[in-house]
């Protein structure tokens, strides 16, 4: 799927595939350095982080195990409920592991701050976050994020794993929705 197939549903392209690739390569280089010789586990947050995980992990120079969690803090709308529920838990034991949570986006920060607390309580040696996107203006809680791809304006975005009611995840870029799509 690409710009043409979105037709009038697309607001504007915020980040192109090229910009995303370039930034992920920089983040991977940093992660390589920071975790050299450490027992690293990548934890992807389903479903939004699948593309970030796929592309970021392939840019790392070492073989790195990955695991997945699904949590829910959103319905099909565009506002955070603040309620976090585990829909799918990890398969791995975190004892002594250096966990790097891989996320698509940090909005209010509620999901991630809850997740960091949850994973830390399982005996991980460290828990850090790598996110492609962050909306600084939307922050409701402070979350210490080690790797941030891009800070973006406080607008609902889609593409590169991010959906609106399960649509548009498979866009190769990150864009905004035209207001008519969500009744704005
Ligand atoms: P919080 O507010 O807890 O939210 O930081 C994090 C989760 O909310 C979803 N989210 C979005 N999904 N476009 C999306 O498609 C957005 O602009 C957006 N903002 C937040 C996302 O699942 C993220 O993990
Ligand atoms: Mg997500």
What do you see in this structure?
By secondary structure, the protein is of the alpha/beta class. It has one domain (17-153): 3-Layer(aba) Sandwich (Rossmann fold), CATH 3.40.50. It has 4 helices and 9 strands. The strands form 2 sheets. Strands 4-3-2-5-6-7 form a 6-stranded mixed sheet, with helices on both faces. The chain has a 3-stranded antiparallel sheet with strand order 1-9-8. The structure holds xanthosine-5'-monophosphate and magnesium ion. Xanthosine-5'-monophosphate is lined by residues 45, 48, 73-74, 80, 103-112, 156-158, 162-163.
Name its key features.
single chain, 184 residues, alpha/beta, Rossmann fold, six-stranded mixed β-sheet, binds xanthosine-5'-monophosphate, binds magnesium ion
């Amino acid at each position: 799927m690409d710009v043409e197939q979105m037709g009038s549903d697309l607001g504007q392209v915020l980040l192109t595939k090229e910009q995303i690739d370039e930034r992920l390569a920089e983040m991977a280089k940093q992660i390589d350095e920071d975790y050299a010789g450490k027992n690293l586990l990548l934890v992807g947050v389903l479903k939004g982080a699948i593309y970030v995980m796929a592309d970021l992990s392939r840019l790392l120079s070492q073989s790195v195990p990955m695991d997945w969690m699904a949590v829910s803090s959103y319905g099909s709308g565009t506002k955070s409920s603040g309620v976090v529920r585990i829909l799918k838990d990890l398969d791995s034991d975190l004892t002594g592991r250096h966990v790097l949570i891989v996320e698509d986006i940090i909005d209010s920060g509620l999901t991630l701050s809850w997740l960091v607390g949850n994973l830390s309580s399982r005996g991980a040696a460290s828990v850090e976050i790598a996110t492609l996107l962050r909306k600084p203006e939307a922050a409701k809680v402070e979350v210490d994020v080690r790797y941030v791809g891009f800070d973006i304006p406080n607008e609902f975005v889609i593409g590169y794993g991010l959906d609106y009611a399960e649509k548009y995840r498979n866009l190769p870029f990150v864009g905004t929705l035209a207001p008519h799509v969500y009744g704005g």
